[in-house]
Design goal:
Helix content is 57%, strand content 14%. By secondary structure, it is α+β, with helices and mostly antiparallel strands. It folds into two domains: 244 residues, Orthogonal Bundle (Arp2/3 complex 21 kDa subunit ARPC3); 233 residues, PPM-type phosphatase domain (Phosphatase 2c, domain 1), CATH 3.60.40.10. The strands form three sheets. It has a five-stranded antiparallel sheet with strand order 3-12-11-8-9, with helices on one face. A five-stranded antiparallel sheet has the order 4-5-6-7-10, covered by helices on one side. A two-stranded antiparallel ribbon has the order 1-2. A hairpin with a 2-residue loop joins strand 4 and strand 5. Helix 7 packs antiparallel against helix 8, helix 8 packs antiparallel against helix 9 and helix 11 runs antiparallel to helix 12. The chain is elongated.
């Protein structure tokens, strides 16, 4: 479809804007160099085309200074990409970096003198640009060193303004360095640098008026040179301040990238450690009981999880079942998991044989006192007594287990409390009771099962688990758990598990 004229104009303006105002900093520097080159070329063109005779002294001087400033900016940019300059920006003030910085910018300052124009024994120049820049990015010693090179060189060239101009160049580097100190080593920014350059060159003119004799000659020189030198040095500072700002952005971006990569590497290492700890605490063998058929499995996600489960034999007819999930996946969370498992085992196997609520309350007090992080724990702890086929349990914020009642062919969900372990030290819990019959089945799982999604974005849920339970109720616990695993894998298809899934199936014989 052909666009109407207004849309075509709008698209054209957007293209022009995106070309003139690029988003990438490197592109901005590239365009800036193009502008500098164009500006220098135009100045050279006007000088060759019109000559000194058809231009006023001030205009002619200004064009020459702009042309030389463009050359200096290009040279300074090349130097700014060298390792010693980047080292200075990074506050790496080695002897080598400082010497090279002083030598390079000292040479630029001398070039600024030689590339100037002689007017009544005074030299219109951009000599002060180099020491100002050196002082602003390197501090007082580097600024002073560059200023001395440019200033002493200018003094020995002689002329009525030799003392004033030499002193101004030295002070330009020193003042730039003092600004560096006052600003605590931070670059003052583009606008601040340009204002400093304009003020410094104005001060340069004042020194000429105060020191150069006779005053009438000093006044005439300042009248002719003040405008061009202030404008040329300010323009040069504008361009170079932009380059410095861009370099500082590059360094900040690189530091952030390196920090991110280091953090990512550390995170990967932590996950590997956490995964090893988690696997080491999952039981290798499941206890065998005459009246109970037990199976369990852990389906690992792409990262380590905080799941764990355990079976603790209390007597021939009694077993404790534990399934829990830690709220984080890093090493501290995994250590909390390991500590919790150890405490649970120790207390369960003791002669005291406490109730489920007493054990969980005791565990909560310990991990709340010892844990310094914001990690919490959900836990289901149940004691199965196969003599009377009852289970006393506590569900502290964990995903409710589902129970298939063989007599009614129905699915029920075990209630849970909203209490999370490791958050509040003093909690009160009450034991719950579940009566079981032959062929009843209990499925325990962690909440990772709810994070499983299909291609339509639908989540695996309790209804699906219940359907699988009812359909496979005649099977053994191992067959049921394999069917569950296959259903989960089939549901998510080619997708990966976002969270670990731990499954326990108990079937009463």
């Amino acid at each position: 479809m052909k666009q109407n004229p207004q849309e075509e104009l709008k698209d054209s303006l957007i293209k022009i804007r995106s070309f003139l105002i690029p988003g990438d900093d490197e592109d901005k520097v590239m365009y800036l160099h193009a502008v500098v080159a164009l500006l220098g070329s135009l100045c050279a063109f006007f000088l060759l085309e019109y000559g000194e005779m058809s231009l006023g002294m001030m205009e002619h001087t200004f064009l020459i200074l702009i042309e030389k400033t463009c050359v200096i900016v290009v040279i300074a940019y090349i130097i700014s990409r060298m390792s010693f300059f980047k080292g200075i920006l990074q506050k790496k003030f080695t002897i080598r970096n400082q010497i090279l910085m002083i030598a390079a910018f000292g040479a630029i300052s001398v070039f600024g003198t030689y590339s100037g124009i002689n007017i009544m024994g005074a030299i219109a120049n951009v000599r002060d640009l180099a020491p100002m820049i050196a002082g602003l990015v390197g501090g007082p010693w580097i600024g002073l060193g560059v200023g001395l090179i440019g200033g002493v060189h200018r003094f020995f060239l002689g002329g009525p303004t030799a003392i004033a101009c030499g002193l101004a160049t030295i002070l330009a580097g020193l003042f730039g360095g003092l600004i560096y100190v006052i600003n605590k080593g931070k670059f003052i920014g583009i606008i601040g640098a340009v204002i400093f350059a304009a003020l410094m060159e104005s001060f340069h003119m004042i020194l000429n008026l105060l020191i150069t004799k006779p005053y009438s000659l000093a006044f005439t020189i300042v009248q002719d040179l003040a405008g061009p030198m202030i404008l040329a040095n300010s323009l040069g500072m504008l361009v170079f301040a932009f380059i410095i700002s861009n370099l500082l952005k590059e360094q900040k971006t690189k530091q952030e990238r390196d920090q991110y990569l280091d953090e990512l590497e550390r995170h990967k290492y932590e996950l590997q450690v956490a995964q090893k700890i988690q696997k080491s605490f999952l039981p290798n063998n499941i206890p065998s009981m005459k009246r109970l058929d037990i199976s369990a499995i852990n389906l690992p996600a792409k990262d380590a999880g905080g799941d764990f489960y355990d079976f603790i034999t209390l007597s021939d007819e009694k077993i404790a079942v534990v399934i829990a999930d830690v709220s984080d996946r890093k090493v501290p969370a995994t250590l909390l998991m390991a500590v919790s498992r150890t405490i649970i085992r120790s207390i369960s196997e003791s002669a005291l044989n406490p109730k489920s609520s007493q054990l969980v309350e005791y565990l909560n007090r310990l991990i709340t006192e010892k844990s310094k992080s914001d990690v919490s724990l959900t836990l289901f702890y149940g004691i199965l007594n196969m003599e009377n086929k009852e289970m006393n349990f506590i569900n502290a914020g964990h995903s409710p287990p589902l129970v298939f009642k063989s007599k009614d062919k129905k699915i029920i969900s075990l209630e849970k409390t909203d209490v999370l372990l490791g958050v509040n030290k003093n909690i009160k819990l009450e034991d719950k009771k579940l009566s079981l019959e032959k062929d009843d089945i209990i499925i325990f799982h962690t909440d990772g099962i709810y994070s499983v999604t299909n291609v339509n974005g639908e989540h695996f849920n309790n209804d699906l688990i219940g359907e699988i339970l009812i359909k496979n109720s005649p099977k053994t616990s191992k067959e049921i758990i394999n069917d569950l695993k296959d259903s989960i894998r089939g549901f998510c298809g080619k997708g990966v598990l976002e969270d670990d899934i731990s499954l326990i199936v108990l079937k009463v014989k």
